[in-house]
Specification:
This protein is α+β, with helices and mostly antiparallel strands. It is built from 4 helices and 8 strands. The structure holds zinc ion (ZN). The site of zinc ion has 6 residues, from strand 1 and strand 5.
Length: about 130
């Protein structure tokens, strides 16, 4: 499989609006856009950083995965996303290597990307997202 780059860092926040003070006002990043992914009960805000992006994740529902993450671990980096050339091939290869997957097949993420998560148990505690755009 071919990893192209770190696509984005997914950061769980209680309020995107509130965190703009740091990421935009203080750090000088630009908000490229926001999008709500209903299936994952999350609103995402993309802030490009060179070739990569910071992705702020705000839960739209108290029982969404991001809300549960914050409840357990507090705000902070929730996942690291790697862009791959072919996500189906990458998943098949990892599966063959015995890596535990959360998503056996890609699902639709923000920005029309195809995404899939690997299980943190298989990655040393990091929630790894693969994405193809
Ligand atoms: Zn992501």
């Amino acid at each position: 499989m071919k990893i192209v780059k770190i696509d984005h860092l997914g950061i769980a926040v209680t309020s995107i609006d509130e965190k703009k003070k740091f990421w935009i006002d203080a750090m000088g990043l630009t908000l490229e856009g926001t999008e709500t992914v209903a299936a994952q009960k999350v609103t995402t805000a993309f802030l490009p950083v060179g070739e990569s992006e910071v992705e702020l994740l705000e839960s739209t529902d108290a029982d969404g995965p991001v809300a549960k993450y914050i409840e357990k671990k507090g705000e902070g980096i929730q996942h690291v996303a790697f862009r791959v050339e072919n996500i189906e091939e990458a998943l098949a290869e990892l599966k063959e290597k015995g890596i535990q997957l959360i998503d056996q097949t890609p699902r639709k993420g923000a920005g029309g990307a195809k995404i899939a998560f690997l299980h943190p148990k298989a990655t040393g505690g990091v929630l790894v997202e693969l994405c193809e755009r």
